[in-house]
Amino acid sequence: MLQHRPGGSRNAKGQKVNTATSSTTTTTEARLYVGTYAKYNNGNIAGAWLDLADYADREDFITAARAVHADEADPELMFQGFLGFPGAWYAESSAPPAILWEWLELVEIERLAFGAYADHTGGSVTVDDFREAWQGQWDRGADFAEHIAEEFGSIPKDLPTWLVIDWERSWHCNLRHDYFEADDADGSNHIFRNT
Q1: Using H for helix, E for strand and C for coil, what is the string for the chain?
Q2: What are the CA-CA distances from residue 16 to residues 29, 78, 94, 110, 150 (Å)?
Q3: Distance, CA of 26 to CA of 83 (rounded, Å)
Q4: pTM for the structure as a whole
Q5: Contacts of 162 (CB under 8 A, 6+ apart)
């Protein structure tokens, strides 16, 4: 859990930003803590938490992050912490990729699923890649196996009730080679088609 308390700092847009101190708060908003290497190398971690949704795009965010450190002639930005977005998009020495702002426009369930997909695939994906691969949220691969068999009409309507289909084995022996499971930040399981 990261610790911070709302501060009185404002970014280049005049929007309030949070500065790091000692009270505890949790959030699911996509945020980055922005400091600089110069401050850090001099034993100072002064900076600010910036809400990424407050900025139109990556360039707008970088402009605001630089404005937080207007006391330096040419601040070398250092992103010292992150919250609420896929870890595959976090790097200490560079702002998140532009795809993050497309991700912010998705509905919550898609954001969670896309986050799981990006973390699983290494982050170099597009929204279209994600939507093509995502098969939905499922408790288990076995549930997805049963669904796909029903959807494709693979289960005869006159199948005797005494026959048992092992959906767990159907998933593990066959379907998991064409699909994969990934948990999102809330712990829900999603199924994706391998591409």
Answers
A1: CCEEEEEEEECCCCCEEEEEEEEECCCCCCEEEEEEHHHHHCCCCCCEEEEHHHCCCHHHHHHHHHHHCCCCCCCCEEEEEEECCCHHHCECCECCCCHHHHHHCCCHHHHHHHHHHHHHHCCCCCHHHHHHHEEEECCCHHHHHHHHHHHCCCCCCCCCCCCCCCHHHHHHHCHHHCEEEEECCCCCEEEEECC
A2: 15, 20, 23, 28, 52
A3: 9
A4: 0.70
A5: none
β-bridge partners, 24: 3
Q: What is the rounded distance in angstroms from the CA atom of residue 100 to the CA atom of residue 82? A: 13
Whether residue 14 has pLDDT greater than 60? no
R_g over Cα of the chain: 22
- Residue 28: band (very low, low, confident or very high) from pLDDT cuts 50, 70, 90: low
